[in-house]
Amino acid sequence: xxxxxxxxxxxxxxxxxxxxxxxxxxxxxxxxxxxxxxxxxxxxxxxxxxxxxxxxxxxxxxxxxxxxxx
Length: 70
Hints:
By secondary structure, the chain is mostly helical. The chain is 67% helix and 0% strand. The mean pLDDT is 90.
């Protein structure tokens, strides 16, 4: 029997407009709401990302973060 999806945590998050638009698009394509999609993404993290590319992208993002905040 599959584990029941219980969305018990409701974090208050801030995200960019571009990030939120992408979240909405991806969740709609998957047939999920935003919370369900984020749960799927984080529960399946190891199988849905390329770790080497992720590390490179997060380093790039961190190097540009101060400029992006302006």
